[in-house]
Amino acid sequence: MFEDLQPAPADKILALIGLYRADPRPGKVDLGVGVYKDRDGKTPVMRAVREAEKRLLQSRDTMTYLGLAGDTGFNTAMSGLVFGPAAEFSRIRAAQAPGGSGALRLVAELLKRTRSDATIWLSDPTWPNHMPVMRAAGLEIREYSYFDAASGAVRFADMMSALATAKSGDVVLLHGCCHNPTGANLDTAQWAEIADLVIERGLLPFVDIAYQGFGEGLDADATGLRLLAEKVPEMVVASSCSKNFAVYRDRVGAAMILAKDSAQADVAMSQMLSAARAMYSMPPDHGAAAVRIVLEDATLRADWEAELEEMRLRMLRLRVQFAEALRRQSNSDRFDFVASHRGMFSRLGLSEAQVERLRAEHGVYMVGDSRINVAGLPEDGMDAPAKAIVSVLD
């Protein structure tokens, strides 16, 4: 049965992890893997999450199924976190999903059921898993221009020109904040223009918000999404808790629907849960329950927000320090955009050959498209990776 199969292409980021681990050089630097790391290179368990897990273990008296939607308290809390207190919650439905990727796939399955002939528009570039997830759901894909590698800025005019050609009923996937892989974000005025365009063209906004709290702050990072929710008749959202709660391995996410009214929201939710039943049936419970406990307890939530803010500010400091080191080493402003980007990632605009030289000659690891995870930068040694980067420039 399997004799005609060919090996699947290796995941480039997972392969990079293996190469880094096998590298014996003491000064190697890992800027590739997309997880938050502290100054010691560890991905911490957040204080509030650890306390919530203790409470969960002490209070849990059953391990039975929760249902297709998962933890309903988690869903309510996440809807409030994402849409904000002023949202029309009668029009919103949410289902717990296995991580942000699970939420994306769940929404994609819903879109295939309701808009089978729709095209989904993805930014160029976008997170590498967006395309395979949408293809797996059978959706047609097109791309819109987004990032200017030379300046490190958003190509907003080109983006709007591309989306102006989308047909009514098409879906546009937008990064809610902290664009992955570039770190270049839309501003509030641009979000407002996009809202006007999607209404004019009859498009459906699909917001992937995987880094809320890592950019400008919890509420500020949801500004664009909430602006859309105020204006558009309907939209869909995929949210992840992997980064802002650091529960990566527990796979915690939420798929959300904003419908025209409560009745349509109920129908769409029934179809989304039907899709969940066919894919994985019930979502995992532990991580989502811990997140729910944090969000529902005022003391734990305050501690979580404080630690999340510490993480955010640390990444901002690293950005500024790295941009300054690159300016010193290059004697130019070529990489100044790193300081203005937000989130864990920036894309440096290097070629794959230059990225390979960095790995082979200097032990500096990054993804082939030159995306770096700023949380992996050495706080006390910025000049070494900056010097290495400048040394491979043409």
Automatic annotation (TrEMBL):
Protein name, as recorded: Aminotransferase
Tagged with keyword Transferase: yes
Keyword Chloroplast: no
UniProt record, GO biological process: L-phenylalanine biosynthetic process from chorismate via phenylpyruvate
Domain Aminotransferase class I/classII large: 27-389
GO terms for cellular component: cytosol
First-tier enzyme category under EC: transferase
Organism: Mesorhizobium wenxiniae
Family annotation (InterPro entries): Aminotransferase_I/II_large (IPR004839), Asp_trans (IPR000796), NHTrfase_class1_PyrdxlP-BS (IPR004838), PyrdxlP-dep_Trfase (IPR015424), PyrdxlP-dep_Trfase_major (IPR015421), PyrdxlP-dep_Trfase_small (IPR015422)
UniProt GO MF annotations: identical protein binding; L-aspartate:2-oxoglutarate aminotransferase activity; L-tyrosine-2-oxoglutarate transaminase activity; pyridoxal phosphate binding
Keywords recorded for this protein, A-Z: Aminotransferase, Coiled coil, Pyridoxal phosphate, Transferase
